[in-house]
Design a protein that fits this description.
This protein is α/β, with parallel strands linked by helices. It is 37% helix and 14% strand. The strands form four sheets. The chain has an eight-stranded mixed beta sheet, with helices on both faces.
């Protein structure tokens, strides 16, 4: 399997923005090292505030940052984040809303975290904070090589490891770290040189305020198109166990971000043309409260990454992300609430991948694709984690012209009504089977075939007349069930279908149901042909159902598609994957929202396994444009 994707549907939002051509010309990235999600989303932690071991100025901290209302409390600590960004931008990582933003690398400290952010992959070879030149090419390096961005990428960091993380010697990115002198004639930059040279460096590195002022004045003087500012003090004060100073640094960094945004809006090159991304490299331990000072693989709470924000560049302001998808009223599981960045328009050859934060072993990558100047997010975990994502750029791929979707469990959430009813009908005929057996042996198949398979392989019964009787009983009961039970679109299904239509990619629904049942489901959902989907193909329409390729081949014929490599097949069962492979589809994809679990899908050797439909879109866009 090429890539195992576990992600959520933020990509829907990004691709909707792509359709609307929400463009940006500049990208500004800010990281807050080791910032905890707890303070970002809940404000001051009372268990640390009242602990004299960690908070020496409890009265002052309480006065400055405490409020009994959680919304006011977090706003006191992060006023810019909880006013400007949450009102006009997008914010991810609130675990109270199951909006989880996690790192994928197993180390959960800085160098591996930053490598992961800027290359898109966790790399087991990057496993220390030592000053070692990064062998991996970062997205900043790639962007800096593009004609329109050459020498327009700049980095300012408090920590002196960033020249190595971004390998400034190879990448030729301007990286100014710690006490690096700025060899520029501007008086303000020369003054900052003197200030940092004379600083006492109480934490052993350049204060974040000086890092910020250096970056701001450089921005004013030299107008980079991509600017990255890496703050550090939150991590160092946390390691020192000084909670009040940790809070003050976080508050100060929020103020610097606000000042930076105001500066950007005051300059014509950046005003309304810039996307701001704020994130961090790792979280901190919390389940054992004393471990808040630490992070790494051994700390409780898994040191999860805490938040990602984006603002500007005509992004749709949707505030806090919650649940799977694009703030859908129906959500599932942990969100992919992730960070996002900006797509940088340029020449037709500009195919840049901005690799951003990691969620539940997912890497989010923003792809600036040829002829697709728009925001796109790609989630990927490489099984071979040292493989460089930029190798994709050199490969030419045919555009994807058609996606064939299974229905129940893939695009339709019907709580396994079909297989529960199938199991019931078989048991009513005197065969004692479980739902798990029915799912294992029958999922995805034409339902008469599924019944015969269960009878033959589980009950050792080869009786077509009995199978036909069970099938007819099953159909009657299923119609009744679909008329009365709740049926919903799977999370992100409608957004995915809408986006495919915008890209002129054919959306086919295919199913092992007969046409009567399939059309009943679509009627209950309110889905219409040529609105939500392009065509429905059922087991009634072909001589051979799954795993044979007949339904896929019929769909290709109907739309004049000659090359099956231009087709993607996606479904929630192993037989869906087999159908796609037998049709020689470009990609056969399993989705974990229905009948089969990961191991069952993996046994069919899909090209991808995704957690839900929101993860499909970046694959489609990547294969269509890169």
């Amino acid at each position: 399997m090429k890539r195992f994707l576990l992600a959520a549907a933020l990509v829907v939002a990004a691709l909707q923005q792509a359709v609307c051509q929400r463009k940006t010309e500049n990208l500004v990235i800010v990281t807050l090292d080791g910032m905890r999600w707890q303070e970002v989303f809940k404000g001051v932690d009372t268990s640390l505030l009242h602990n004299k071991k960690y908070t020496r100025e409890e009265g002052a901290v309480t006065k400055d940052f405490w409020d009994g209302d959680i919304t006011e409390r977090r706003k006191k600590l992060f006023p810019f984040l909880w006013t400007k960004i949450v009102e006009g931008g997008q914010l991810y990582g609130n675990r109270m809303l199951k909006c989880n933003v996690n790192v994928a690398n197993p180390y959960r400290f800085s160098y591996p975290g930053y490598n992961e952010i800027f290359t898109g992959f966790p790399d087991t070879a990057v496993n220390s904070n030592n000053h070692v030149k990064n062998k991996n090419e970062t997205v900043l390096e790639f962007i800096n090589r593009q004609k329109d961005y050459k020498n327009k990428v700049a980095v300012f960091s408090s920590w002196d490891c960033f020249p190595y993380i971004l390998n400034k010697w190879r990448s030729n990115i301007y990286v100014n770290s710690d006490k690096d002198t700025m060899p520029f004639p501007e008086p303000k930059l020369r003054l900052i040189n003197d200030m940092q040279r004379l600083s006492t460096e109480p934490l052993g590195l350049r204060p974040d305020a000086l890092t910020y002022f250096a970056a701001r004045e450089y921005l004013k003087a030299y107008r980079p198109k991509v600017l990255y500012i890496a703050f550090d003090e939150t991590d160092d004060f946390a390691h020192a166990g000084v909670y009040d100073q940790y809070l003050k640094s976080a508050h100060a960094e929020d103020g610097m971000i606000a000042d930076l945004w105001n500066t950007l809006q005051s300059l014509p090159q950046y005003k309304n043309k810039t996307t701001l991304v704020v994130t961090c490299d790792h979280g901190r331990g919390d389940k054992v409260k004393d471990q808040w000072t630490s992070h790494g693989r051994n700390e409780s709470g898994r040191c999860r990454r805490d938040m990602v924000c984006r603002h500007g560049a005509r992004l749709k302001g949707i505030g806090r992300k919650k649940g799977f998808g694009y703030c859908l009223p129906r959500t599932m599981g942990a969100d992919i609430c992730s960070n996002v960045g900006a797509l940088l328009p340029g020449s037709a050859s500009c195919n840049a991948c901005y690799c951003a934060t990691i969620l539940n072993k997912i890497v989010i990558r923003i792809v600036v694709a040829c002829k697709a100047i728009s925001n796109v997010i790609l989630y990927t975990e490489q099984n071979t984690i040292n493989k460089n994502y930029l190798s994709f750029i050199s490969k030419k791929r045919m555009a994807i012209k058609m996606v064939v979707f299974d229905m129940a469990g893939t695009t339709v959430d019907e709580d396994n009504i079909v297989y529960k009813t199938l199991c019931k009908a078989i048991n009513q005929a005197g065969c004692d089977v479980t739902l798990a057996i029915v799912l294992e042996l029958g999922a995805g198949k034409e339902k008469f075939d599924a019944i015969e398979t269960v009878l033959r392989q589980y009950a050792d019964i080869d009786d077509s007349i009995l199978a036909r009787t069970i099938y007819e009983n099953f159909n009657r009961q299923l119609v009744d069930a679909y008329m009365t039970e709740n049926i919903f679109p799977q999370p992100n299904a409608l957004e995915v279908l809408k986006t495919l239509k915008a890209y002129n990619i054919v959306a086919v629904l295919n199913t092992g149901y007969n046409r009567q049942i399939a059309e009943l489901i679509l009627s209950r959902l309110g889905w219409k042909k040529e609105v939500e989907y392009d065509v429905l193909i059922t087991a009634d329409d072909v001589e051979r159902s799954r795993p044979y390729p007949d339904m896929v081949l019929l769909a290709m014929h109907m739309f004049g598609i000659q090359d099956s490599k231009e087709v993607v097949k996606i479904g929630d069962s192993a037989v869906d994957i087999e159908e796609g492979k037998n049709a020689n589809c470009g990609f056969s994809i399993g989705v974990l929202t229905g009948a089969h679990n990961y191991l069952q899908l993996q046994a069919a050797a899909p090209d991808y396994i995704i957690h839900h439909l929101g993860e499909l879109l970046p694959i489609i866009l990547q294969e269509s444009f890169l």
